[in-house]
Design goal:
The complex is a heterodimer. Chain A contains twelve helices and 19 strands. In chain A, strand 5 and strand 6 form a beta hairpin. The longest helix of chain A is centred in the middle third of the chain and has 15 residues. The radius of gyration of chain A is 21 Å and the shape is globular. Classes of the chains: A alpha/beta, B mainly alpha. The interface between A and B is large, with 73 and 57 residues.
Chain lengths: ~400, ~350
């Protein structure tokens, strides 16, 4: 399999972040490819930029449905004019540190893009869900380690593992760049055993390179808490990243290309073909389906995996930087999610990898039980309890929901 | 497009789907009974209908009394009520008055849900099986007064028996008498519908277990313990060690497949379920004896439900103990990393 460039849409809708986003364009403005159209505020002075993925004219700034089912403001740009980066190689301009470059180029850390984050354990700085990579690098202590996950947290998503196989050299180059940025002493790659030889060493880096073989067939196995148990000498302050983040970092630092694309694995029984596409941010989801031969009219759209993902409510929802996988599923295959009473089957207790009692935690959250705050904090949000509940109770949503 | 919550793939069938398949299996039994018995089945069908109505009305009434609007009812709730009603009718004595049956079902369903020791905002499943409650009450009230329905043996029994003996059992040098083969279909006389059509119950068990809709382990352990005791202790206590007859009479298979593992009455751990199933098997042996005391299994399951409550209490105690140890070790680990009590820095910032 190889990476294919997705169709270029005539109109893109660039989502603006919910976190203190400052929009720098207005309706009617002309923008060029790669131009900064918004900035995302961070905790520090490092602000992450949002770039226009296409040249053209801003036709609207309005709320529209996003890929996670929510609604938020998007900048709609009609494509016209010449491209500055597409098909061209540009060297980075000006003298900037790596972290400043990552900030200016809008690089996000896309490690662990589950619908509800479950990294609330043991205080790692790499607290994801699309956080600016520059901010995380600045918060990482020098002399530590970076961990590059080469597998997907959801077994139905294959993006990261495919990228790890197809674009290994770029991934390694990105790891070396980030290691230099955070002055890491160790780079740990966690991936399948068949790529061990490829990732055992990296040129042009002073950091020690380590490869940890791991199978990602069992779920869960690629979340941060699962990966920590596989690494020796873990301190809890490592920076966790994935292959896609490394590719974006290489484009930003080496080629001077802003973060305007996302690698998306398209699959599902409701489309004719599947494949790994490099998609411009803001591309409507229906474009991906058309490129894959069309989709069934009553298909459901699942973003980022059947276990940890979310459902999009519109085919016109735009792709953003955190979208790794789009699955088109026939609606009839999605099981009924109508709730019924708890049957006290015990399945949720058996399946919980943390050996919790999701049924009792659900009672605690609904206010009929007490004294389970500590146990609630142990929940990693894997969602296995939901998948084995015959009553189809929204267990993980209620348990985790109050934690965020 | 409809917004859905993750996950989008499930490993077990839903309550509604399980109830649908169970209803199909029970309908097959009822249909076979109607076809086989003919016009004489009207009285028994009226019993089934009254129990179903009583079950559905009790669910509606209970939720109305708790202030829950009717419009929020899911199809699965009604389906489960219908299934419970049919099961109750099939273990009640065949000649039990339908009106009395409806009232008993209604009263016991509401009372059991209200008094359930596991009741919470999430679950109103009764800790005691309502069907066996009603059946035991009916037997206590009526004693031995209920008449049995005598059903003539099918004319197909003889050729079927001959075919099996010549084609299958001859391989093991065994000849099975006609009476045993007939037990798979209809007993000579029985006091409840649960005693009929053991072959359909066996097929239902296969279907439900294959679809992961039944607790096969609980069913198997219950039957194994009961039949083992019949084989070992039966001769000494009852002068009879006929395992096949004990398995196919008294509604043992029906109780094992449809009644024993009623949701809400089972312990939640595997160990607890093994203990529960074995306890029910032992109790059934002493109450049902070797199958001659019809309806005894209902009492055994009722006693087993009470044991299950105790088992679940111990399970919760053990769980709290394990979690408290996990929490203590986690707190120690976090303190060694110098983190706050939430285990992360600023993770609750919004």
């Amino acid at each position: 399999m190889k990476v294919i460039d997705a169709f270029m849409p005539s109109i893109v809708s660039v989502p603006l972040s919910r976190h203190a986003c400052h929009c720098m364009v207005k309706k009617g403005d002309s923008v060029s490819e790669g131009q900064v159209i918004a900035t995302i505020g961070g905790k520090s002075t490092l602000r992450c930029a949002v770039h226009s993925p296409v040249p053209g004219k801003v036709i609207d700034i309005a709320k529209m449905p996003l890929s996670d089912g929510s609604r938020f403001f998007c900048v709609k740009i009609e494509t016209s004019g010449s491209f500055n980066y597409l098909g061209k190689h540009k060297a980075p301009q000006g003298e900037h540190s790596i972290i400043e470059t990552l900030s200016g180029m809008g690089v996000l850390n896309t490690f662990d893009t589950s619908a509800e984050a479950h990294w609330c354990m043991a205080g790692s700085a790499s607290h994801s869900l699309g956080r600016p990579l520059a901010e995380q690098c600045a918060a990482t202590h020098a002399g530590g380690s970076i961990v590059v996950c080469l597998g997907d947290e959801d077994p139905t998503v294959k993006t990261t593992s495919l990228l790890a196989h197809i674009m290994a050299q770029e991934v390694k180059q990105g790891a070396a760049i980030i290691a230099q940025a955070v002055q890491a002493k160790r780079i740990v790659f966690i991936g399948e055993a068949d790529i061990k030889d490829v990732y055992s060493n990296i040129d042009n880096t002073d950091a020690a390179v380590q490869f940890v073989a791991s199978e990602f067939v069992r779920y869960p196995s690629a979340f941060q808490n699962d990966l920590k148990h596989k690494i020796e000498g873990i301190t809890g302050e490592e920076l966790f990243v994935d292959a896609q983040t490394m590719l974006t970092a290489v484009d930003a630092v080496v080629s001077g290309t802003p973060s305007m694309t996302s690698y998306v694995y398209v699959n599902g029984e409701a489309v004719r073909a599947k494949g790994l596409l490099r998609v411009r941010v803001g591309t409507p989801i229906r474009f991906l389906a058309e490129q894959c031969g069309g989709m069934d009219s009553n298909a459901a759209i699942i973003i980022n995996g059947l276990m940890v993902g979310s459902s999009a409510t519109s085919v016109n929802a735009p792709i953003d930087k955190c979208v790794k996988c789009v699955t088109f599923v026939p609606s009839k295959q999605l099981r009924s999610q109508g709730e019924s009473e708890c049957t006290r089957c015990g399945n949720c207790r058996w399946v919980c990898p943390e050996r919790l009692s999701p049924d009792l935690l659900f009672q605690f959250v609904t206010g009929t039980s007490y004294g389970m705050e500590a146990e609630r904090n142990m929940c990693t949000g894997c969602g296995l309890c939901n998948s084995v509940c015959p009553a189809r109770l929204p267990l993980v949503q209620n348990i985790i929901g109050g934690v965020l | 497009m409809t917004m859905r919550l993750r996950p989008f793939v499930y490993a077990v069938p839903s309550v509604g789907r399980t109830a649908t398949v169970t209803l199909a299996c029970l309908t097959a039994m009822l249909t076979a009974f109607v076809i086989y018995v003919g016009a004489a089945s009207i009285a028994q069908l009226s019993l089934v209908i009254s129990c179903v109505l009583g079950s559905v009305i009790s669910v509606l009434l209970y939720n109305f009394l708790r202030g829950r609007p009717f419009v929020r009812f899911k199809r699965s709730v009604i389906l489960c009520a219908v299934v419970e009603g049919i099961i109750t009718a099939m273990i009640l004595p065949l000649s039990f008055p339908p009106l009395h049956a409806a009232v008993l079902v209604c009263v016991f369903t509401i009372a059991a849900k209200h008094l359930s020791v596991q009741e919470s905002a999430m679950s109103t499943r009764s800790a005691l099986n309502v069907s066996v409650l009603v059946a035991c009450t009916a037997q206590i009230v009526g004693g031995e007064s209920y008449s049995k329905v005598e059903v003539a043996a099918t004319r197909l029994i003889t050729p079927i028996t001959d075919a099996l003996n010549s084609g299958l059992f001859s391989l093991f040098s065994v000849t099975v008498p006609e009476e045993y083969i007939s037990l798979f279909w209809t007993p000579a006389a029985a006091s409840s519908l649960s005693c009929y059509f053991a072959i359909i119950v066996l097929l239902s068990s296969l279907v439900l277990n294959a679809l992961n809709m039944a607790e096969g382990m609980v069913q198997a352990i219950f039957c194994f313990v009961y039949l083992l005791l019949v084989r070992i202790a039966g001769p000494a206590l009852y002068g009879n060690a006929d395992v096949i007859s004990a398995a196919l009479s008294g509604g043992l298979l029906f109780y094992a497949v449809f009644v024993l593992s009623c949701p809400g009455t089972l312990p939640m751990s595997r160990t607890g379920r093994v203990i529960y199933a074995a306890s029910c098997g032992v109790l059934a042996f002493f109450i049902q004896k070797d199958g001659r005391q019809e309806g005894g299994i209902a009492y055994a399951i009722l006693c087993g439900n009470i044991i299950s409550i105790l088992i679940q209490y111990i399970e919760d105690l053990w769980h709290n103990f394990v979690v408290s140890k996990m929490n203590a070790s986690l707190t120690a680990q976090q303190n060694s990393h110098g983190l706050d009590s939430h285990g992360a820095e600023g993770v609750y910032d919004k």
